[in-house]
């Protein structure tokens, strides 16, 4: 079978520039939305996965779900800290941080919107448990003082959060002594201070959670079973990473459902656009098609030529749409995470999987939109077609 | 012989004939419009639903909460102090319960409230007199909204177990009353029970957490003095261990919406992107039509028809396709929105296609119809008769 040269399809698109532009433009917008929504979801997941360390465990009150609604009594926290599987640092001190998490409200710098911010009181081992956190400006807070360090997203978006400023909350003024970067994790949107100081300021008797490093991650099952079956403790033991993944579930579901619905609806519009264009391409070229057939090109060749034209159209749309979407990586979204009830900032993140999916999605639109018109072209009767020209 | 001016009837007929010349293309374009206008309407309704809480807020209600954040409680004794402020008519304490019904996915708001003052302040929650009395008599009783009751099949007398996240343990409530909304904008997806019951139980289990209040709802006598009264309440507790923040119920609700603003903005942008997608489709249809008919336009010009007539022809066709497509889209919005609301259960307490949304749909359809005709009309007007007659589509 002799194929109709690719040039035929390309030049057909080129002659009708406005139509090609409009159809490919419509598809580009659809691919843009398709990719952008998935990038948002990927960014959210990546942020929360980066927050948890694989060999850390996080203990909260049973069924609390989030750290803010959790309370771990001092006695319970001591039992957790005494578990033998917990790793120790050089000095023999176990890697355990008993933490107090409260929400404070601060106005955002650019909009003035009062925003909930997670404020975490950590124990001496807190920073060692989060190797992704490093101080980028100033220094770490002094234990036992009214000093705090703030995540870089907080210092960027909120007033009074630069080194040397004082943050007023809990009836005290807290001196900001440092800014930390936490590798794009949720900690970037937090304020950290001393756990005992925070508990005093908020008159809290109980910790919110306990974070610990296991010497051997395989011991997780044993620790979890022992702590959760102890009748004195009503606690949930989770891997830190799993805990933070759960924190994103609600938002992530919402984004992906919304994205799926929108993509389906939008693609219907774009496919209709492709179909209109291709039907008219066929209708305008009936004589040409007849000639091609008379020259000896088979029905399959004609079908393929028109399908190829539609695929080229879709591919152009897909590439442009994906290009636009990749620009979104420069944008950071900051919003309220419904589960932790506090500010969370994350980026649109383009992964190879999303890029591939977007292009496949575009080509699929091209195939579906172009198939029926191509079939019509292929089924034209030679004699009728030539006569109509 | 002078050409007799064609009347509007002729023009109309010509537009109709032109529109139906490529039935498949016209139908496809209209279908695209239906999809676009429908999804635009749904997205706008989602945005509206987000603001529903703020829309349903009454101007005579203020909310007092801890200035640090909503998650930090206020002492119980503030109630009497707030009540003593001039201009305050009534005060009701409420606590956010955050219980889980069977699965965390089954989310609905639950509040422990002081029933008498609370329901007096919320006349839009309509409860039957006898059911309300039965609720008052049962300390484990609960009042649930109609929408919530329908979503989970709650009936009066049913026992509803909730697993507490803020308040540990499994709590069992008996549905004693179902409330209806005064109108479609009232949130009937909420679950209320006795604050006394919550407090007594907490007192027995964890005494240090008893007598703590999440928010106070304050009813004021004069709407005009809302700002003043708020200021006075906050002044009462300034420099105390638990400073307060008082704002109108509307501001309080908008505070929630604002924090998820980024998502709302995204939905808004996307809803306009769909309009651009359909504009591209529609403009393409009109461009192709004009290209194919270039020789006809030249003929019409040769016969003495002016640019006004040609424009009317092209705009008329574009606008009528847009009108039919979008009318179908608007008509479909209502049943689809209803279906969507039923599917979403209590996630969107209020999900109603507003008049504003319909207006926006109409405006977008007209804009798309008109914009799609601009380039083809210019081309038709600009074509030289000789070129046009030579042109082949």
How many runs of DSSP E, i.e. beta strands of chain A? 12
> What is the helix tally of chain A?
13
Count of separate structural domains of chain A: 2
Q: What string, H for helix and E for strand, traces the elements of chain A in order? A: HHEHEEHEEHEEEHEHEHHHHEEHH
Task: Please explain how this structure is put together.
The complex is a heterodimer of chains A (389) and B (393). Chain A is of the alpha+beta class and 389 residues long. Chain A has helices spanning 6-15, 17-51, 74-81, 126-129, 152-157, 195-201, 220-229, 240-247, 249-284, 286-294, 299-327, 352-379, 382-388, and strands spanning 56-61, 96-107, 114-122, 134-138, 147-151, 166-169, 172-181, 190-194, 209-213, 235-239, 332-337, 342-347. Chain A has 2 domains: 6-49 and 249-388, no CATH class; 63-233, no CATH class. In chain A, helix 11 (299-327) runs antiparallel to helix 12. Chain A is elongated, with a radius of gyration of 30 Å. With 393 residues, chain B is an alpha+beta fold. Chain B has 2 domains: 8-52 and 261-390, no CATH class; 68-242, no CATH class. In chain B, strand 8 (159-164) and strand 9 form a beta hairpin. The two termini of chain B are 31 Å apart. In chain B, the strands form 2 sheets. In chain B, strands 1, 3, 4, 5, 6, 7, 8, 9, 10, 12 and 13 form an 11-stranded mixed sheet that branches. Chain B has a two-stranded antiparallel sheet with strand order 2-11. In chain B, helix 2 packs antiparallel against helix 14. The longest helix of chain B has 38 residues, at 307-344. At the A-B interface, helix 2, strand 2, strand 3, helix 9 and strand 11 of A face helix 2, helix 10 and helix 11 of B.
Main attributes of the structure:
heterodimer, A: 389 residues, alpha+beta, 10-stranded mixed beta sheet, 12 strands, 51% helix, B: alpha+beta, 2 domains, 11-stranded mixed beta sheet, 56% helix, 17% strand
Would you summarize the structure shown here?
The complex is a heterodimer of chains A (389) and B (393). By secondary structure, chain A is α+β, with helices and mostly antiparallel strands.
């Amino acid at each position: 079978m002799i194929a109709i040269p690719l040039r035929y399809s390309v030049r057909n698109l080129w002659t009708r520039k406005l139509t090609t532009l409009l159809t490919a433009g419509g598809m580009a917008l659809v691919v843009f939305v398709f990719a952008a929504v998935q990038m948002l979801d990927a960014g959210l997941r990546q942020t929360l996965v980066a927050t948890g360390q694989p060999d850390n465990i996080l203990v909260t009150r049973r069924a609390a779900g989030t750290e803010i609604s959790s309370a771990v009594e001092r006695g319970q926290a001591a039992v957790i800290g005494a578990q033998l599987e917990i790793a120790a640092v050089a000095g023999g001190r176990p890697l355990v941080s008993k933490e107090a998490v409260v929400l404070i409200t601060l106005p955002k710098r650019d909009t003035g919107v009062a925003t909930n911010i997670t404020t975490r009181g950590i124990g001496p081992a807190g920073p060692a448990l989060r190797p992704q956190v490093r101080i980028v400006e100033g220094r770490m807070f002094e234990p036992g003082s009214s000093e705090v360090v703030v995540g870089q997203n907080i210092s960027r978006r909120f007033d009074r959060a630069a080194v040397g400023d004082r943050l007023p909350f809990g009836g005290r003024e807290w001196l900001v002594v440092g800014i930390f970067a936490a590798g794009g994790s949720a900690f970037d949107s937090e304020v950290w201070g001393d756990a005992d100081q925070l508990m005093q300021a908020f008159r809290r008797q109980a910790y919110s959670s306990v974070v610990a490093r296991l010497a051997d991650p395989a011991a997780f099952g044993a620790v979890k079973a022992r702590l959760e079956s102890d009748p004195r403790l009503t606690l949930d033991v989770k891997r830190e990473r799993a805990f933070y993944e759960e924190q994103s579930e609600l938002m992530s579901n919402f984004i992906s459902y919304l994205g799926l619905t929108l993509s389906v609806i939008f693609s219907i519009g774009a496919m209709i656009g492709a179909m209109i264009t291709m039907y008219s391409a066929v209708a305008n070229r009936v004589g040409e098609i007849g000639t091609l057939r008379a020259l000896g090109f088979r029905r399959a060749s004609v079908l393929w030529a028109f399908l190829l034209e539609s695929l080229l159209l879709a591919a152009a749309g897909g590439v442009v749409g994906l290009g636009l979407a990749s620009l979104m990586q420069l944008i950071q979204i900051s919003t309220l995470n419904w589960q932790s009830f506090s500010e969370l900032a994350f980026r649109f993140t383009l992964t190879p999987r999303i890029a591939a999916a977007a292009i496949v999605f575009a080509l699929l639109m091209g195939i579906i939109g172009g198939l029926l018109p191509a079939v019509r072209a292929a089924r034209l009767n030679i004699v009728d077609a030539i006569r109509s020209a | 012989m002078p050409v007799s001016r064609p009347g509007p009837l002729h023009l109309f007929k010509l537009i109709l004939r032109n529109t139906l010349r490529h039935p498949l293309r016209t139908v496809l374009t209209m279908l695209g419009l239906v999809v676009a206008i429908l999804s635009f309407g749904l997205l706008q309704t989602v945005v509206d639903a987000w603001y529903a809480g703020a829309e349903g807020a009454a101007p005579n209600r203020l909310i007092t909460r801890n200035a640090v954040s909503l998650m930090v409680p206020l002492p119980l004794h503030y109630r009497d102090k707030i009540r003593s402020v001039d201009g305050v008519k009534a005060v009701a304490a409420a606590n956010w319960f955050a219980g889980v019904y069977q699965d965390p996915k089954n989310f609905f708001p639950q509040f422990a409230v002081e029933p008498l003052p609370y329901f007096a302040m919320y006349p839009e929650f309509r409860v039957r007199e006898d059911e309300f009395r039965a609720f008052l008599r049962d300390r484990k009783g609960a009042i649930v909204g109609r929408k919530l009751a329908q979503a989970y099949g709650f009936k009066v007398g049913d026992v509803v177990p909730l697993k507490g996240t803020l308040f540990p343990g499994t709590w069992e409530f008996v549905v004693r009353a179902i409330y209806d909304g005064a109108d479609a904008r009232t949130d009937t997806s909420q679950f209320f029970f006795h604050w006394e019951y919550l407090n007594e139980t907490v007192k027995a289990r964890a005494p240090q957490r008893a007598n703590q209040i999440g928010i106070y709802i304050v009813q004021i006598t004069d709407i005009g003095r809302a700002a003043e009264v708020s200021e006075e309440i906050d002044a009462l507790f300034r420099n105390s261990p638990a400073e307060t923040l008082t704002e109108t119920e509307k501001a309080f609700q908008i505070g929630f919406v604002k924090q998820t603003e980024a998502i709302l903005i995204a939905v808004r942008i996307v809803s306009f992107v769909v309009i651009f997608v359909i504009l591209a489709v529609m403009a393409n249809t009109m461009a192709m039509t004009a290209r194919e008919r270039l020789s006809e336009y030249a003929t019409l010009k040769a016969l003495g028809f002016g640019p006004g007539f040609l424009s009317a022809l092209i705009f008329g066709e574009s606008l009528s396709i847009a009108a039919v497509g979008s009318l179908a889209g608007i008509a479909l919005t209502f049943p689809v929105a209803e279906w969507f609301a039923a599917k979403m259960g209590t996630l969107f307490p209020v999900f109603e296609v507003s008049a504003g949304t319909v207006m926006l749909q109409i405006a977008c359809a007209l804009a798309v119809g008109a914009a799609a005709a601009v380039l083809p009309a210019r081309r038709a007007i600009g074509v030289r008769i000789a070129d046009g007659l030579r042109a082949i589509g």
